[in-house]
Amino acid sequence: KSVGTGSEQLNYGKVYSGLYEFEGNVVPYLVVVKVGKESEQSKTKPGNRGKRDSQILLMSFLNRVHHRSPMNPLELEMFHQINNIIGVDPELYEYLFMVDADTSVREDSLNRLVAACANDGKIAGICGETALQNDEKTWWTMIQVYEYFISHHLAKAFESLFGSVTCLPGCFTMYRLRTADKGKPLIISDGVIQEYSVCDVDTLHKKNLLALDRGTGVMERSLVPASSLDQLNDPQPVRADAA
Asked: What is the pLDDT of residues 15-57, one digit of tens each?
């Protein structure tokens, strides 16, 4: 089931997996391509349901892995590719890292995020500081420097003092899948997925909360109040999305 209205709630996908090798380093990968129904093949982007739909697809899969619940054919194929082809039990994954395709991540950023979560078991979600890569290219990018500094540095740094960052950016964020002590689901809990997978986005409030892929942190904060959502200013991704 996809995020959408009417017939758009039905979607199809293809799963590819393998090992990516670069300079002696081997990284396993899994790619899910949403291809859409036969009636969509003439469209420009068949199967496209937005970023939130892709997030829910992965979160629902990990939720069913955690609870060992029945899976749909796409999820069964994903489980097969991860477990049998890549050779990793999906239940062993501890974190979910979300990054945009137009975000350049520094080499040590992910390690620092994981280290911060390992040192503090109450952290349920954490993000790094986001900055512009082409900040001196045009007058528009120069203006954006101030907006990014205020929204991605000052505001989040202040909220992080109390462990309650209200909005973790979708371009560079990592979530803990389960609590460190008792193994209870966090980002993959039934409540978070149910609230985040609302199909009928009919109000401005819902559109601001859900359509911009920033609602997971808010959902997690409301449903798991004992958790902590922090910002780590040390790992700094560089986002080059300004024109």
From this structure: 999 999 988 899 999 999 999 888 888 888 888 888 888 889 9
Region class of 6: left (phi > 0), else alpha (psi between -120 and 50), else beta? left
- How far apart are the C-alpha atoms of 17 and 44, rounded to whole Å? 25
Strand 131-132 relative to strand 238-239, pairing: parallel
Distance CA 196, CA 221 (A): 13
Written as six digits, the tokens of 13 are 């996908």
The structural domains of the chain, with segments of one domain joined by +, span 1-91, 94-242
Given a cut of 80, whether residue 100 has pLDDT beyond it is yes
Q: What is the pTM of this model?
A: 0.81
Nearest to residue 158, comparing CAs of 231, 222, 236? 231
Full strand arrangement of the beta sheet holding 238-239:
103-104, 238-239, 131-132
Q: What is the bridge-based pairing of β-strands 95-99 and 238-239?
A: unpaired
List, in order, residues 6 or more apart from 83 with CB less than 8 Å away: 89, 90
- Is the predicted pLDDT of residue 237 greater than 60, yes or no? no
**Greatest pairwise CA separation for the chain in angstroms:** 53
Tokens of 119: 């040192």
The pLDDT value given to residue 208: 67
How many other CB atoms are there within 10 angstroms of residue 105's CB atom?
A: 18
Measure Cα distances from 55 to 9, 62, 107 in Å.
15, 11, 24
Q: How far is CA 105 from CA 21, 62, 108, 157, 219, in A?
A: 19, 25, 8, 20, 26
Q: Is residue 178 very low, low, confident or very high in pLDDT (cuts 50, 70, 90)?
A: very high
